[in-house]
Each structure stands twice: as C-alpha cells, then as structure tokens.
Amino acid sequence: MSCQTATVRPAVTQRPAPGTASDVVLDLQEVTKIYPGRPPVPGLRGVSVSVAAGELVAVLGPSGSGKTTLLHLAGTLDLPTAGTVRVTGLDVATLGDRQLAGLRASSIGFVFQLFFLAEHQLVIDNVADGLLYAGVGLAQRRELAAAALDLVGLGRRLRARPTQLSGGERQRVAIARAIAGQPAIVLADEPTGNLDQATGAAILDLLGQLNATAGTTIVVVTHDEQVATRMRRQVRMLDGRIVSDTAADAVSARPAAPGERIAGRPGPPQRVTR
Ligand code: ADP
Ligand code: MG
After folding, report:
1. pTM exceeding 0.90
2. What is the CA(135)–ligand 1 centre distance, in A?
3. The domain defined by 11-23+52-76+94-253 carries CATH number 2.30.40.10
4. Which pLDDT band holds residue 249 (cuts at 50, 70, 90)?
5. Which residues contact 215 (CB under 8 A, 6 or more apart)?
6. How close is the Cα of 44 to the center of ligand 1, in Å?
7. Distance of alpha carbon 138 from its chain centroid, rounded?
8. Strand-strand pairing, 24-35 and 82-87
9. Residues with Cβ within 6 A of ligand 1?
C-alpha cells in the first residue's frame, strides 16, 4: 500500500483562534444532493449549516431524513449536486481526488455504527493504520495511536485484538482511530447504533468528554434523544431538510463532566476517565 503524503497542512496547525470568522471548520450552504435513479432520490434539499471549531453537535431525525447524506458530504466522501461544502475553509468542489483524500486524512475523523476494525490486527495497529495517509512515520503513528487509546480509556489494551473486546470497547478503538491524527472535525454516524442503551450512552458521554477536554469538534448522528438533548447543539432533520437547529443553553442546563471546560473551546488534551 502506498503512503501518500497529505497535500493539506495538518489540522492541528489549521485550527484558527476561537471566535474568528475562520473559526468555522464545516460550512454547508444551500446544499442539495440528488441520488441518480428512476426516479432520482433527493437526499438533501437545500441544507445550510455551519459548525465552528470546538462545537459538539448532535444530528437527529428519522430514518431516511438525510443524516448520513449530510455526514458523507461534510466528510467529502460524496459531492453535492448543488450548493457549497467547505471543510476548514476549503471549497471541496475546487479540490481533486488526491487533495480530497489529503483533506480527509488531515482534517476529518470518521466513526461508524459498525466500527470497521481489522479483527486480525492489534488494537494499537488498528489505530496507527488510520494515520497511514497522514504522512507520518510508523514510530510516530504508534505514539499517536497509544496516546489516543489512552484518551479513550484503553491505554491498557494496546496489544489486544478487537475480538477480545466488548462492543463498547471496539467503538472506543474506532473513536481513538478517528481522533489520533487530531483532525479538525470528527463525524460519527450512529456510533451507538450497534450498542445497548447503557453502552451507547457511555460512548456518547465519551465523545462529549473528548469535546470538552480536548476541544475536538464533533458532529454525531444519534437516535438517543436523551443524550442528544444534553449536547450543546441539536440539529433536527426531516425529509432532506434541517427543521430546527438549536444551540440551547444545554451547557448550563446539565452538570459538567469531571474536568470539563464549559466554554467548549480547545484546551490541552486530558485523559478521559472511564
Ligand atoms: P438517514 O441517514 O437519515 O437514514 P440517508 O441520508 O441515508 O438518511 O438517506 C436520505 C435519503 O436518500 C433516503 O430517501 C435514502 O433512501 C436516499 N439515499 C441515501 N443513499 C442513497 C444512495 N446511495 N442511492 C440512492 N438513494 C439514497
Ligand atoms: Mg443513516
């Protein structure tokens, strides 16, 4: 497998000062996605939404409302039919395939419902391999992987195999893989969909803690209304549209997690306690 060097600067140097206009890491304007077919299927019908560095956003909505389409476009896994998608200020329509791959490698971390771990590989290698396209050498990949696994509370399971882990632990590995390269934004598509209620809630709490302590910008699609309403911002979708986008005073409405920085702005990474 060839190791392409990212053509985009690492996210960690791209992170602008909070409160500035370039603070926006994700920006969709009038985005429409029509899937080809007979008849064509609308996935998104004119969606505009911006996410600033350090935000934690829950995306809610019934099946088929366009949540995954939104995340795929935000993650540059797919391109819009119309409208503009900007990631870390870059208009994805102006980038070629290699540049898009570079942007994804340096700026975006993905977490999926089904974890997508390589079962035959050690936990640490699952995470380190996520950095293959970020242009860093093996020793540094392992170092970053170990640090990320420590952050998600799996510092002692580096040499385990995914098959030896519970579902919740596997999703923690996937989250470590998503954050290891310190991306500008983490996109999680139903990360709790394959977990029981309590484990799923713990995973959402972990994402909340990573946001609060490390300032990681996170957009998470979740069905868990209860947990979502504890997040600072909720975007509700229906039929390919955003029907509400509320940045409630959830910060003051809920108890702070241990060590949480209430402002939700980047701070030094801290280990998340389990
Ligand atoms: P959600 O994640 O909220 O369940 P999706 O974004 O997956 O919603 O789907 C939104 C709409 O787009 C649905 O009508 C779905 O059937 C359609 N859709 C999603 N992906 C495709 C695809 N690859 N081809 C055709 N239609 C699709
Ligand atoms: Mg979906």
Report:
1. no
2. 33
3. no
4. low
5. 53, 54, 261, 264, 265, 266, 267
6. 9
7. 24
8. antiparallel
9. 35, 37, 41, 43, 61, 63-69
